[in-house]
Design a protein that fits this description.
The complex is a heterodimer of chains A (111) and B (115).
Chain A: E1 4-7, E2 10-14, E3 19-25, E4 31-37, E5 43-49, E6 55-58, E7 61-66, E8 71-76, E9 85-92, E10 99-101, E11 105-110
Parallel strand pairs in A: 2-11
Antiparallel strand pairs in A: 1-3, 3-8, 4-5, 4-9, 6-7, 7-8, 9-10, 9-11
Chain B: E1 5-7, E2 10-13, E3 19-24, E4 31-37, E5 43-50, E6 53-57, E7 65-68, E8 75-79, E9 88-95, E10 105-106, E11 110-114
Parallel strand pairs in B: 2-11
Antiparallel strand pairs in B: 1-3, 3-8, 4-5, 4-9, 5-6, 7-8, 9-10, 9-11
Chain lengths: 111, 115
C-alpha cells in the first residue's frame, strides 16, 4: 500500500525567511503533485513533477523530485503572508490514476 | 478557463437518508474522480470513473456508494443511507488523461453534514 508522509505537519513562518516542506512516499512512482488548500476551499494545483530530478518554480515556491530517495521538497523563499495555507503532496502509483495524499502541512506566515 | 463545478455547496441530511452529490467535470476530460476530506484530515480517494465504468475504488467506497454519469456532462455520487461518519467535504475532480501529466483538477467541493 502506498504511503505518503509529509513533515512538518505545521509550520509557523516569519515573513522574509526560507522554509522547506518534505514529502516522502513508500513505493515506486514517478508522478508527484503539490496542491494548495485555503481554509474551506478546494485544492489548487501548484506543481506536477514527472521525472527524477524535476524542478519547478513559480514565484516564491520551488518543488523538486528525487525518485530514487522517494522524496519531494517544496521550498518557500522569503515567505509572505499570502502563502498561508495548507500544502498537500500527492502521488500516483506507477500505472495507476488515483492520487494518494500526504497529511498536509499547515503553513502560517506571521509578520 | 474551464473548471469543475459541484452542487450543492452544502448539504445537510438526516442519518439514513439518501444524498446525491453532483459534479460537472471539465468538458473534454475523460477521467472523473471523487475524493473526500473529513474536517482537518487528509484527502482520501473514493473512486475513479472512465468510459462509463468504475476503474478503481477504495475500501471506503462500499455498497452504500455509487457513481453515475447520467448524461454527457454530469457525474454524480450517491450515498444510499448516510451515516454520521459520512460527514465530510466531497471533492469531484477530472483529468484529461491517465498517463503523462494526469493533472487532476478539483471542484469547489460539497460539504455534507449528516445529523
Amino acid at each position: 500500500e502506498l504511503k505518503v508522509e509529509q513533515n512538518p505537519l505545521f509550520l509557523s513562518m516569519q515573513e522574509g525567511k526560507n522554509y522547506t516542506i518534505y514529502c516522502n512516499y513508500s513505493t515506486t512512482s514517478d508522478r508527484l503533485y503539490w496542491y494548495r488548500q485555503d481554509p474551506g476551499k478546494s485544492l489548487e494545483s501548484l506543481f506536477v513533477l514527472l521525472s527524477n530530478g524535476a524542478v519547478k518554480q513559480e514565484g516564491r515556491l520551488m518543488a523538486s523530485l528525487d525518485t530514487k530517495a522517494r522524496l519531494s521538497t517544496l521550498h518557500i523563499t522569503a515567505a509572505v503572508h499570502d502563502l498561508s495555507a495548507t500544502y498537500f503532496c500527492a502521488v500516483i502509483k506507477a500505472a495507476g490514476n488515483k492520487l494518494t495524499f500526504g497529511g498536509g502541512t499547515r503553513v502560517l506566515v506571521k509578520p | 478557463e474551464p473548471e469543475v463545478t459541484q452542487t450543492p455547496s452544502h448539504q445537510v441530511t438526516q442519518m439514513g437518508q439518501e444524498v446525491i452529490l453532483r459534479c460537472v467535470p471539465i468538458s473534454n476530460h475523460l477521467y472523473f474522480y471523487w475524493y473526500r476530506q473529513i474536517l482537518g484530515q487528509k484527502v482520501e480517494f473514493l473512486v475513479s470513473f472512465y468510459n462509463n465504468e468504475i476503474s478503481e475504488k477504495s475500501e471506503i467506497f462500499d455498497d452504500q456508494f455509487s457513481v453515475e454519469r447520467p448524461d454527457g456532462s454530469n457525474f454524480t455520487l450517491k450515498i444510499r443511507s448516510t451515516k454520521l461518519e459520512d460527514s465530510a467535504m466531497y471533492f469531484c475532480a477530472s483529468s484529461g488523461s491517465r498517463g503523462g501529466l494526469n493533472e487532476q483538477f478539483f471542484g469547489p467541493g460539497t460539504r455534507l453534514t449528516v445529523l
